[in-house]
Amino acid sequence: MPEISDPPDRLPSVDLADAGRFVAASGFVVDHFSGTGVRGHVELGPDHHTPWGVVHGGVYATIVESAASIGASAAVVDRGEFAVGVHNATDFLRPATAVRATVTAEPLHQGRTQQLWQVVIADGDSGKTLARGQVRLQNIPLPA
Length: 144
Fold this sequence. Notes:
The protein is of the alpha+beta class. 18% of the residues lie in helices and 42% in strands. Residues 1-7 have low confidence and may be disordered.
């Protein structure tokens, strides 16, 4: 997969420094991406907690949506398109308080008009899955 420093010309930056506040708050760092996969990591901790001291499910859902959208958009950018999520189903499997998590996304289906991606967020030390999600995305023309 290409390094994030060499993204396709028509894709926006995936660097957290360039992200909006909401996406930046997730802390998801993209290490590598292409139209066939996305890899990254996130340092989960107190800034991501619910009032009960565990990582909020919305953080996982945001990371799942981001990873799938990046990979799916990379897959269709050469056609003058990008991908937008139309359904996100994220399952929260284990609670976490503070962990460096790995993020891996891969396509399950890449069609002409839609794609389906699976994303797994796992504890970087144990390898145990913390959350996993599937995102259905619609391929649409890039804005002018």
